[in-house]
């Protein structure tokens, strides 16, 4: 029997709700596959601030570093929104990404046949979409210096950040993207703002240079504003998208809606060596937290990514992905992927009728 150590970071809002489901899924799948998981649950984000005064306690990072993989729910909430920057829940998330060195964030967006009608795009546009955003995760404007608050020449308050990428940062994420494209359909689109930003100009130059090492991959470049438009015009043109930290954040939320809901998208964040961090791309959803409305599928699919990428347990990963399809085939839906008149069986009738009522109000508004 195999043993793995998993650090669980439930976090805030719907984080603990989706992590508790994901933990059960992991345990159950493991018991079928002869795998035992030792879970260590640690605080992060607002929960950690309340408990210890900081958003990423040292013990949490230590536990994460010595684990085989980390599963995170989500962080953040109104309660902590006005704290100083170094005490914000979001800072804890950025610190753990940086602390683990997980520079490569893989965010797949796949339109499942069962959910075509949940997409906000027309069926013929959404059907068959299967793309992967490779987002740089530990650099760019999120981490660039100088940053801070100050005064301009006129004595007015200013806030400032720096978008900066070094060659090695571009090269290593580009290599992950080329390798990712190689395992997929061999198409890589690098998204930048090289018509305006120096960091993007260097990005485009390095990615173009590296392409000579991957002659089997078709590389194209696209400006981010056009990419945002193309994603809703014709998302099937994309296979693998390579982009920086902030563009990847925005484009992956956009891509999620093609699949029906942000509650569907998982992610894997990996480093050169050391454990990976697995999390849904969504946040703590304070508007629905504590109401048992959260879609746990993004986290469950993140568990599948954890098994595949961190533990090389491909069978267990497939079992989970098939169970998700099975559940959808049976008609079970949370409110976010529910589409009027298209599916008949729901988890709890009462919640669905509430959702229907609120939808009808929305339509009436
Ligand atoms: P959000 O992703 O939390 O929510 C956006 C909308 O999507 C909300 O209406 C929410 O109800 C819905 N939603 C999100 N996940 C869902 C799910 N699993 N099932 C059903 N509906 C879901 O983004 P936001 O509202 O902009 O941010 C809320 C908080 O979360 C902020 O504090 C933000 O900083 C934080 N955040 C954290 C992460 C993370 O932990 N990785 C990611 C994004 C945002
Ligand atoms: C995400 C989130 C985070 C990000 C925030 C909460 C720091 O939006 O994981 O997508 O911007 O990376
Ligand atoms: Mn985001």
Automatic annotation (TrEMBL):
Catalytic reaction annotation: (2R,3S)-3-isopropylmalate + NAD(+) = 4-methyl-2-oxopentanoate + CO2 + NADH
Domain Isopropylmalate dehydrogenase-like stretches: 5-363
Enzyme type, top EC level: oxidoreductase
Pathway listed: Amino-acid biosynthesis; L-leucine biosynthesis; L-leucine from 3-methyl-2-oxobutanoate: step 3/4
BP GO terms, sorted: L-leucine biosynthetic process
Complex formation: Homodimer.
Family per similarity comment: Belongs to the isocitrate and isopropylmalate dehydrogenases family.
Name this polypeptide is given: 3-isopropylmalate dehydrogenase
Species annotation: Kingdonia uniflora
